[in-house]
Amino acid sequence: MSKLIAEERTIVVPGEKLATGMEYLPGNGAFREGDDIYSCQLGLVNVSGRFVKVIPLTGKYNPREGDIIIGKISDVSFGMWFVNIGCAYLACLNVREVPEFIDKGADLSNYYDFNEVIIAQVIKVVRSKDINLTLKGQGLRKINGGKIIEVTPSKVPRIIGKQGSMISMIKEHTKCNIVVGQNGNIWIKGDNVENEVKATEVILKIENESHTHGLTDTIKKALEEGIENGL
Description:
By secondary structure, the protein is an alpha+beta fold. It folds into 3 domains: 3-56, CATH 2.40.50.100; 68-142, CATH 2.40.50.140; 147-228, K Homology domain, type 1 (Ribosomal Protein S8, Chain: A, domain 1), CATH 3.30.1370. 19% of the residues lie in helices and 34% in strands. It has helices spanning 156-160, 165-174, 193-208, 215-228, and strands at 3-4, 11-12, 17-20, 25-26, 30-33, 36-39, 43-48, 51-56, 68-77, 80-84, 91-94, 117-126, 130-134, 141-142, 147-150, 177-180, 185-189. The strands form 4 sheets. It has a 5-stranded mixed barrel with strand order 9-10-11-13-12. A hairpin with a 2-residue loop joins strand 7 and strand 8. It is flat and about 65 Å long. The N and C termini lie far apart (53 Å).
């Protein structure tokens, strides 16, 4: 008889039993031994259909094709830029993957310079070392103004919410333009500093309390209290 032992969003440690029986399948962060499924890392239990996963509480960003990321130009080379995206290796942005037409031999720093921040998409990952980016796509661009905050990459799904519900609520209440990168970098730009500060506080609150139940109601209340106080 199959049975789910660890409840959704509970914190588990490596080796802790999550489920028993063949009806459940191990997802990321879990493994099977005989009829049982165990955690292989410290994290939060997530059950999606038959799959039992463990979302890590901490850890570096692990790039995947299709991810939207926020990164910083760290070096300029012949025909490409190298971008820090918060993982063990720098990502590569080839001159062919930017929307501008660039003449051969042009100084690439005139287009994207050191320490400038971009919103890009991961288009290729080879063994986590060869990471290629593109700026050809809707919303992909160089960032001007606003602020960047960093959160634990594994908390990004909680910050975004189901079908974008959580981040949409934050945008609506703070009137800020917010882009959440899968690598844990978040860009916030509001009409004033006060709105940016409120959005930052709420996002960091989600990160710190991501394992708690009723988080959506908690965040909604925090946002409404901010509005009552003039934000």
